[in-house]
Every structure is written in structure tokens, then in C-alpha cells.
């Protein structure tokens, strides 16, 4: 036991337990040794030596196996938590982009409707007078353009509409044209 303790295995390697195991192949050897030297267990612990009999060795091995299993579960849980954080952050970015697309769609619908209103209010009334004045020999009426009545639904997710959160800026159509050139 003292020779095993003097080898100091724990200091020789990077990743080792703080103790070594001295295996005794029978319970009766351990009982006889303790009867002879009552301080043997304390001396062994001071030297970072654990004395194992067949029964205690099995318990140690099961404990180590369980510990390794729990460590693996903890590592997997950490990986899942990291992936969850990453997915959550990506969802915020995605939802912000979706909200921006909706705003731009609404802006496009608004611009379309203003153009149609201008066409109907200013251009078409004058153009419709051409057949009456005999300037065109067409027997057809000019079709009326339609307004777009739908608007994009605005995102309601608090991650998207929360104050202080700045959405990533998507390139504008002018930026895209400039970059393409």
C-alpha cells in the first residue's frame, strides 16, 4: 500500500482520479490486514489509496460507470441548450425579416393603390374623352384598374415588436441594383 502511494500516479497524468485502487482478491485478506493494523484504512486514505475487495470493487466500477453516464447526459443537455439558444436567436432574426417583408409589401400595396387612384382620377377621365371627340376610332372602353385590398399581416410576436430591438437591415432594391452593377 505504501509503495503504491509513493508512485503518485495522479501527478503523472493530466486527467486522472485523485486516488489509486489497491485490489485485494478476497474479503478475508482485508479483514486479516485490518485486524493486524487498525490504522491501515486511515494510512491508505492519506496516501490516496483506496483498498478494494471483490465486493467494493464492483460497487466502485458501477459508481464510475454511472458517473460517466451522467457526465455524458450533462454534456448532451448542454449541447441541446446551446442549440436551443441558437435556434431562438435565429427565430428572432427570421421573424424580423418576415415583419420587414410584410411592411414592404404593405408599402408596395399602398404605392400601387395611389398609382391606380391617380390613374383613375386624372389620366383615365381625359383618355376616355378621346373616342367622344373622334380622336380614336376604337369601339372599346378602357378597362378600370383594380385596387389591391389586402394588406400583409403584421407580426405580433413579442420578439419582433419588442421595444429596443433593432431588426437587421435588409438591402433595399436600390442597394441590390448597385451591388449587381
How do you describe this structure in short?
It contains 8 helices and 2 strands, in the order ααβααβαααα.
Explained architecture:
The chain is mainly α and 181 residues long. It folds into two domains: 2-58, no CATH class; 86-168. 65% of the residues lie in helices and 4% in strands. It contains eight helices and two strands; from the N terminus they run ααβααβαααα. It has helices at 2-6, 9-12, 27-36, 40-46, 54-127, 129-133, 158-161, 173-180; strands spanning 20-23, 49-52. A two-stranded parallel ribbon has the order 1-2. The longest helix has 74 residues, at 54-127. The two termini are 81 Å apart.
Question: Which helices and strands appear, and what pairs or packs with what?
Answer:
Elements: H1 2-6, H2 9-12, E1 20-23, H3 27-36, H4 40-46, E2 49-52, H5 54-127, H6 129-133, H7 158-161, H8 173-180
Parallel strand pairs: 1-2
What gyration radius follows from the Cα positions, in whole Å? 41 Å
* Main beta sheet strand tally, sense and closure: 2 strands, parallel
* Helix-strand string: HHEHHEHHHH
Low-confidence segments, given as residue ranges, are none
